[in-house]
Specification:
CATH topology of the largest domain: FAD/NAD(P)-binding domain
Structural class: alpha+beta
Number of strands: 21
Helix content: 25-40%
Radius of gyration: 23 Å
């Protein structure tokens, strides 16, 4: 039975986030493209992100005099990711290494300026690591260039016109020359923008806005508020999709293929209960429409999945009415993390995904989450989340979110910790501080740890004693910025069945697909980088390139 198609195109992209890079690549190669988006907003999780891209063997390293070969890049992927399963096969790891160049070239063709971020690789000490980091980001973007369409961009939580590295440095306060210069630079940028009447976007919003502007120039349509309802399969091949648009069911034919780049399942309580319990939907920063629809529709066609128990974990807390993720504040001196019994169990300054995995393992073992402990000097000197020092909201204490005590025993009682265990943990930690070396978890030993340190704190920029009252505590959970597991794909982003055979016409990228990085997060912008790289790989394959 033939299908009465309402619309036709070459490539259908489901999701107006990182998949927009694939749409732009396909348009450049002469394909007719349509992008559909479930929500009213353009940007997906990318708009919420730091807007950084972790790209190996990229020209911005070479411009800084940092020589990197393809072989070095491959060695680092092997050292960090390793044999983590089919999603991170050698072919996919190589595709990511090589695909970074295609992404950089795409951005250059469409005048999207990229600069080196200066963010350290998360595992720089491993073979092939780069202490200066492989992360890049785009420059601030004046939203006035989009005209009325600027209202279509997904709003972001951080509105300060600072890039991701600057935001992290601002959290230190003006305690170091670098931090003071960052405060001055961001302040001047803010003042000049106001004087010019500019509406500056940074981080993920700047990246999304530039892609949106490029797609608009290329006349690639984006249908908002158009959820995917069904994938159409004819004789074993995906030939299009049924969508709900303006309240009507419409069918669109995709002659070359359908790219699913619609996010993961962070907001789907049932899927999280099935794959990630006890983690639910209360501790995620993913968009509210991140409900796994595309993953489930792929499974309905027999697609295999991988890494469904993984997420982009970040330690999280829950101040009244919101969720706060903790990337940098746990790394500063005068803070530690303890489990539900009061025992220190992790290097607090290690990469957030790794810390989140350890937290989840400990929470499952004890049945209760742990705590982040702050000493008075932490609250006096550093931001907690994005809350400036010495400006702790009264509501935090009134709601019970933050505990405050004049002694460690009192704090232990308020948190339900074992006094003896807790005191022992603090005493041992303070002993490490006095030596300038964390003999239990090596906090402050790595490049990544020290990147978030306070150089004025002493020989170890990440260590500071817990001894000066008042003391504070906040219960901390394994939060996330999205799930990391999904449909299994190959090096061309083709969706695979359990037997390893590709489903013709069906592709996936971003959080709809299982991560090429396995169970690690190697550098700032890895997830957004992979989303865009594999979206481009999908477009190239549909266009007959690298097929």
């Amino acid at each position: 039975m033939s299908i009465a198609w309402d619309h036709q195109c070459d490539m259908l992209v489901v999701g107006a986030g990182g998949g927009m890079a694939g749409a732009l690549e396909a348009s450049d190669r002469g394909l007719e493209v349509v992008v559909v988006e479930k929500s009213a907003w353009i940007g997906g999780a990318t708009a919420y992100s730091g807007g950084t891209l972790w790209l190996l063997d990229n020209p911005f390293l070479k411009a800084r005099g940092i020589a990197e070969s393809r072989e070095q890049a491959r060695r680092h992927m092997d050292a960090v990711v390793g044999d983590a399963g089919p999603a991170s096969s050698p072919a996919r790891r190589d595709a990511y290494v090589d695909g970074g160049r295609a992404l950089v070239e795409l951005m250059a063709r469409h005048e999207v300026p990229l600069v080196h971020s200066g963010w350290a690789d998360y595992y720089a000490e491993r073979d092939g690591g780069v202490p200066q980091g492989r992360t890049v980001h785009t420059l601030p973007f004046d939203a006035r260039r989009l005209g009325a369409d600027r209202e279509l961009l997904r709003p972001a939580a951080i509105v300060v016109p600072a890039n991701s590295v600057e935001v992290a440095v601002l959290a230190l306060g003006p305690r170091t020359p670098k931090a003071a210069m960052t405060w001055l630079r961001v302040g001047l940028r803010t003042i000049l923008a106001k004087l010019r009447g500019a509406v500056l976007l940074t981080r993920g919003q700047a990246l999304v806005a530039r892609l949106f502007e490029a797609l608009t120039r290329a006349k690639v349509p984006i249908w908002r508020e158009t959820p995917l309802v069904e994938l159409v399969c004819e004789e074993g091949r995906v030939t299009g999709a049924r969508l709900r648009r303006d309240g009507q069911l419409v069918s669109i034919r995709a002659r070359r293929g359908v790219l699913l780049a619609a996010g993961g399942f962070a907001r789907n309580a049932g899927m999280r209960q099935e794959h990630q319990a006890p983690v639910g939907v209360d501790w995620t920063m993913a968009p509210v429409d991140d409900t796994g629809d595309a993953i489930r529709l792929g499974q309905d066609l027999g697609a295999a999945t991988d890494l469904m128990d993984e997420a982009w974990w970040v330690p999280g807390t829950s101040p009244p009415g919101s969720v706060m993720l903790h990337v940098w504040d746990r790394c500063f001196p005068h803070a530690i993390m303890v489990d539900a019994e009061g025992r220190r169990f992790v290097n607090e300054a290690d990469p957030y995904m790794e810390v989140g995995q350890i937290m989840l393992e400990r929470q499952r073992a004890l049945g209760r989450p742990g705590w982040m402990i702050l000493e008075s000097r932490h609250r006096d000197r550093y931001a907690f989340g994005m809350t400036p020092p010495r400006m702790t909201p009264k509501a935090w204490f009134e709601s019970g979110y933050m505990k405050k005590a004049s002694s460690l025993d009192e704090l232990a009682d308020l948190c339900g910790l074992d006094r003896e265990v807790f005191r022992g943990s603090i005493a041992r930690f303070n002993g490490h501080v006095a030596k300038g070396r964390d003999e239990d978890f090596r906090r402050g030993d790595s490049v990544y740890n020290r990147f978030y340190g306070d150089s004025r704190a002493g020989p170890n920029p990440n260590l500071g004693a817990i001894e000066k009252a008042p003391f504070y505590a906040v219960q901390v959970h394994p939060g996330d910025v999205g799930t990391a597991g999904g449909l299994l794909t190959d090096e061309h982003a083709r969706v695979l069945r359990a037997d390893g055979v590709a489903i013709p016409g069906l592709y996936a990228a971003g959080n709809t697909s299982a991560s090429v990085f396995g169970r690690t997060y190697p550098g700032a912008g890895a997830s957004i980088g992979a989303s865009m790289v594999f979206s481009i790989r999908a477009a190239q394959h549909m266009a007959g390139v690298n097929a």
